[in-house]
Design a protein that fits this description.
Elements: H1 2-20, H2 29-51, H3 64-70, H4 74-84, H5 89-96, H6 100-114, H7 119-128
Helix pairs in contact: 1-2, 4-6, 5-6
Amino acid sequence: MILYALALGLGAALLEWLHYRHAMRFLPTEVYITVIALAFTGLGIWAGLRLTPQPAPATFERNAAAIASLGLSPRECEILELLAAGQSNKEMARTLGISPNTVKTHLARVYEKLEVQRRVQAIEKARWLALIP
């Protein structure tokens, strides 16, 4: 706030100095208004960025209690993460180095443990339980 007030004061002093030097005769008033507007816009943006507190990045902590209570294996947690990333069964199989049929089996177990029928439901419930970010 103090810096902003000082900048306003310096701007006013500069305008008075220009007025006394008869610089107003050489340039139209609109030029001075534009320069002042741009200067204070820049100063306002700078002050806003400088004074506004930046939010701390949120860290995700997996709900270990929910994983234990549901009986999810580490591989099923990996399947859930890949599911949330939007991968197909074949892509999950390639990523994990297993067959697509094994992925289907893991997905069926995950659906059963989460008590859902579809991918979207599984992702929503897993996010609600803080199993995936």
